[in-house]
Design goal:
four-stranded antiparallel sheet; cell outer membrane; rod-shaped
Length: about 425
């Protein structure tokens, strides 16, 4: 067999759809894995729970505008009571009883709270949005795990194909040498050497397949997708995106600053004047007329104002604390951006390096292929030993594995770059 036959076999193995090699049981894309990893994340439902909690808080705050009604009761005995120390002829003013009883309802109605309820709603909404965005940041980290598993599976698929090619090449050489052994023109050790190499190659294939299955099972747990050894994993077509960042961390920092601003506004609202109505309805002995020692019903209503006009600068200092916290959030944002920028520089350099190595790998594969083809011919003609042929064949196979590995690394490097910028929807 010449080198053109080997190249044809390799191209068939590399281009042949995976479903032809493993069976038709569906296919999976990288984008789908990104999506399903998020959908399958156990804490995703916390987004709805956060909203439910905020809705309950809003309902409680709305209750601030409903009247407060308290039922009270008391019975007392006192050592002395109010009396009129003046004697008026013909007029008898009896002193109230020393035992007194009262059952009454207190009423309180907010009329104007200085915007406090509205400000508290905005704080709660901002806190909810911040907690949701923290969860988004947490879930975004799943993309790195998807990249690692997905591209690892593709790499092992390609390694499997190249090793299968090696195994077929050895089998073809064995058929020729075994025929020569029967005719007494080939030494037995040459045959045994190839048989041993075939077994070794089979072990390598088993190891690659075992590692592939481990990665597939891990990806199944992560994404919840029904995948197995027969599932097709497509190598994505992706390009390096240099768009504006879409990282959820940036939205989180903005939301944290917004939360601080809402808290500062809430502090300011606590100083505003409040207007409220109040009243009491009751039945007791005595009623409002303390000079009547009998049970009577009564009521009174009124309007009150409350205004904290001086708090010894407590509100001012609390706002200063919030401003410092805001500065710290900004420092965290700038640190995050600096770290990502450094990672992007390294990632970009890695992409360029892989592009260059792929070019030289292709040249090396071409050279190794020619050498292996010549060795195959020389082996069949008895010019070299099987050990010499195996050495040249392994060099060719390793060169092909290196090439395919770097191609996958190149795709993964681009995926990692886009993960860093947050632009993932391009495959």
């Amino acid at each position: 067999m010449d080198k053109h036959y080997h190249m044809k076999r390799l191209l068939i193995l590399l281009i042949l759809p995976v479903q032809m090699a493993f069976g038709q049981t569906g296919q999976v894309t990288l984008e789908e894995c990104y999506k399903q990893a998020r959908e399958n994340y156990p804490k995703l439902s916390d987004l709805d729970r956060e909203q439910q909690m905020n809705d309950l808080k809003v309902k409680n705050l709305n209750a601030n505008w409903l009247p407060t009604v308290n039922l009270n009761g008391q019975a007392t005995y006192q050592s002395d009571v109010t009396s009129v120390p003046v004697s008026i002829p013909g007029v008898n003013i009896s002193a109230p009883s020393k035992d007194q009883y009262k059952v009454y309802i207190d009423l309180h109605q907010n009329i104007y709270d200085g915007g406090l309820t509205k400000a508290q709603k905005e704080v709660d909404a901002a806190n909810t949005a911040t907690d949701k965005q923290k969860l988004e940041v947490e879930m975004y980290s799943l993309n790195d795990r998807v990249n690692q598993l997905y591209f690892g599976i593709i790499l092992m698929q390609k390694s499997h194909k190249v090793l299968e090619l090696k195994k077929e090449n050895i089998a073809e050489r064995l058929r020729v040498l075994e025929s020569g052994l029967k005719n007494g023109v080939v030494q037995a050790r040459n045959v045994e050497t190839l048989r041993a190499e075939k077994i070794l190659t089979g072990q390598q294939i088993e190891e690659v397949d075992a590692n592939r299955m481990a990665a597939i099972k891990s990806l199944a747990v992560l994404t919840g997708l029904t995948v197995d050894k027969n599932t097709q994993f497509q190598a994505p077509t992706i390009v390096q995106e240099d768009k504006d960042w879409q990282r959820p961390e940036l939205k989180l920092y903005n939301q944290m600053e917004n939360t601080i601003d809402k808290n500062a506004d809430l502090i300011a609202k606590t100083r505003n004047p409040k207007v409220f109505g109040f009243g009491q309805v009751g039945y007791g002995k005595p009623g409002l007329n303390m000079l009547q020692s009998e049970f009577n019903s009564y009521y009174y209503v009124g309007v009150g104002v409350k205004w904290n006009i001086f708090d010894w600068k407590q509100s001012s200092r609390r706002r200063e604390v919030l401003e410092i916290q805001k500065q710290m959030v900004n420092s965290s944002r700038e640190t995050f951006k600096q770290n990502v920028n450094m990672a992007l520089v390294q990632s970009s350099e890695n992409i360029q390096k892989l592009e260059s190595l792929i070019s030289t790998d292709e040249k090396l594969v071409s050279i190794r292929d020619k050498v292996a083809a010549q060795s195959a011919s020389q082996l069949e003609n008895g010019v070299i030993t099987s050990a010499d042929y195996v050495t040249d064949l392994n060099a060719e196979i390793q060169a092909r594995i290196n090439l395919e590995s770097r191609k996958v690394q190149y795709l993964q490097a681009i995926a990692n770059y886009n993960t860093l910028t947050g632009n993932l929807s391009n495959n």
